[in-house]
Amino acid sequence: MTNRKIFVVSLLVSLFLATFQNAQAKEPTSDKKYTVTGKVIDDALNVPLEYATISIVDVNDPKKITGDVTNAMGEFSVDVPEGTYNIIVEFISYESKTFNNVPINDDLNLGTIKLGLGSENLDEVVVRAETTQVDIRLDKKIYTIGKDLTTAGGTVSDALNNVPSVTVDIDGTISLRGNENVRILINGKPSAIAGYGSTDVLQQLPADAIEKVEVITSPSARYGAEGTAGILNIILRKDKTLGFNGSLSLNAGIPANAGVSGNVNYRNKNFNIFNTTGYRYFEAPGNGYFDTKYKNAANNEFDRIIEDRDMQRLNRNFNFNLGMEYYLTDRSSLTGSFFYRAGEDRDKTTNVSDYFMNSEKAFGSTRIERENQDEKDYQFALNYVNKLDDNGQKLTADFQYETGKENQISRINEVENYNNINYDGRLFDERITNDEDQTEYLLQADYVLPFGEDSQFEAGYRGNWENTVTDYKLYQENENGNLELNTELTNVFDYTENVNAFYTQYGSKFGDFSFLLGLRLENTQLKGKINSEIPADQLEQVFGFPIDTDFDNNYLGLFPTVNFIYELAENENITLGYNRRINRPRGWFINPFPSRSSNNNIFQGNPNLRPSYSNAFDLGYLKDWEKLTFSSSVYYQHETNSFERIQENVEGTNIIRTIPVNLSTQDRFGGELGLLYNPAKWLRMNGSFNFFQFETQGEFAGKSYYAKNNSWFARFSSKVTLPAKIDWQTNASYRGAAQDVQGTRDGIFSLDLAFSKDILNDNATLSLNVRDLFNSRKYSGYTITDEIERYSEFQWRRGQSFNLSFIYRFNQQKKRQERRNEGGDDMMNEGQFK
């Protein structure tokens, strides 16, 4: 039974009994009345059960029924005339308890009545907990994460890779329907937990921290307009179960991987305390290969360079999240939380290069980079909720402060392997320090005002103020063998992004038809200042394009949203959505000072980048049967000033520079299908297929770029319960080949397997999984321009990985059931008009 139905049933029962009592109170009677009292609690947790129903039936006249529902303390009190009664105590999904033929001729205290979950209902809970559920709302699809064995001991990124419409590539980049311009939110807000414009943190948080994922391809005006592909809102676990409960997870694997994490929660009538703490140690070996041919090489230049890159990564991460929700009144609460993350990365990259001249090996070198990175992030958050009345009027307010420091030291040493041409190029030893200080403030307020039973108005404000200061210093070996500061490339980049937004939206329902109309006004300020020894008028000569060293750009935009849903039947609907979105360039896309992990391949930001804008349409269909859920959609998106990474040969050198640019327009359209099929308790399957086409055209530095391409990706997952109650899960995915403005990308196939068994009276689970069984999760492709032809391969995590995980749960069997009974007050925030 859904949360809404539970709420409605409880409400109707309460109204019925109250009405019946009032009616009886008006009946003239001379009989003396006696009071029946008691308390109802959960038999396992020994916590009160609110809204349990007490029915008192006259044995001589069964039509005479009176009763009550329990309060927040589980207590009830009913006045009845003298007589003999059957007393029935019920709570949804629990076994009822009946006291037959009870004579009442004085006040009666039934004492503490303990109820337990019914075995039939408990079986239903287990089935639902092990399968991913999908719920369609006006502006989103909500996937409640089931017990995904392949991500046991894994990370949030691993879990996201199993959500329909979402892909996570080998270097951790998240895409929605094949589009990387996706906004990541945590519990509905930007967060340090998701990283400052990066998804690295999501590769460090444990997967079991996720409660559900909202895939928002047609965001309403409530959400920030950032992310042209849409929004992924990750809801972390915070139980509302009464009492104390939690879980402990231990895992170890190959390549070297070990971790421990714990989730605990305690709630009583006054407050709810929740905590997640975890530590993870893991090694992630990777590799890269780049074969570059230069078409216009002169006799004194190299015409081909092959780089073979080996990467050894060692990461140690600690995460701590502590919060408390305090119930100020029956209608209001204040939640405070603190998040802390500390990371220590120790990486070594070995780059072996062979330089060719006239197709013969001319020169060879080995470049070793050792990088130490230490990072600390803090986040403080306050949330205030006030349900102003019983009709759904609600006010919420949020304040969030985040700060982080990242200190990175790199030491680069390059030695000569062979020299067949007496090449006189010097090989420098280098040391790089890169310090980043990040600060972000968020202030948000939302107000909800219902009209009648089926209409609702909402308005709100959100302000984000984010600043990042990057202090970059490069020391290079001089002729005397000493390290000397390179004043030309040393710089300080101060970048600020401020966004202020107001929104309003209105939703209503007429019969089977619902709509949600919204408008958001956002002002974006992108401000940056570059402090460098290079004079501003010389930067263009050094970097090859004009650079503004002190810019302050403001963009004011309106972002309308329209969402419709039509209920064809109780479990069948059609949705239609339109939205306008913005994609703002992040700091590392703007910083013009290049990376230095390779002599020949560099990434360089572009401070001239402007935001891109998109208009998107989405038409969806959902049909839900008892054992099968089918979802589908077709979509179209037109984007202007879209970002594209252009590779070019720096004139007079063998350096290939990758630079992001605004490349005019991109049109993307496609369709997707999804199936969730649970034919039996021992077999559960789901799959999705997404086909899309995009067309890109534009001009940069006097050159025209055009690409038109079809691509697709598919995902399939099955879970089979074997004898001895062993679960076997298989996840397979394939991302089709694609073409961009400068080349092609090969397809990627991946297969994961996992086995698990519940032990210790089903309070614990032991899991074994292997990811990337065929070692096929790797990027490869070709780049072709007028100057170069390149084949490249890259693998962020090389080879198969094996992981053994042990999870122990305490007081969580009841928690699963309780989660189904919570809610009902999300209203339009979760899409009231389903």
UniProtKB/TrEMBL annotation:
Q: Where is this region: Disordered?
A: 815-834
Q: Which residues form the TonB-dependent receptor plug domain?
A: 153-231
List the InterPro entries.
Beta-barrel_TonB_sf, CarboxyPept-like_regulatory, OMP_b-brl_3, Plug_dom, Plug_dom_sf, TonB-dep_rcpt-like
Q: Which PROSITE patterns match?
A: TONB_DEPENDENT_REC_3
Which interval of the chain is the signal sequence? 1-25
The protein's matches in Gene3D superfamilies, at most eight in alphabetical order, are given as: Carboxypeptidase-like, regulatory domain, TonB-dependent receptor, beta-barrel domain, TonB-dependent receptor, plug domain
CC per GO annotation: cell outer membrane
Q: Which UniProt keywords apply?
A: Cell outer membrane, Membrane, Receptor, Signal, Transmembrane, Transmembrane beta strand, Transport
All copies of domain Outer membrane protein beta-barrel, residue ranges: 387-808
The answer to whether the entry has keyword Metal-binding is: no
Q: How does it sit in the membrane?
A: Multi-pass membrane protein
Q: What family name appears in the similarity comment?
A: Belongs to the TonB-dependent receptor family.
**Name under which the protein is recorded:** TonB-dependent receptor
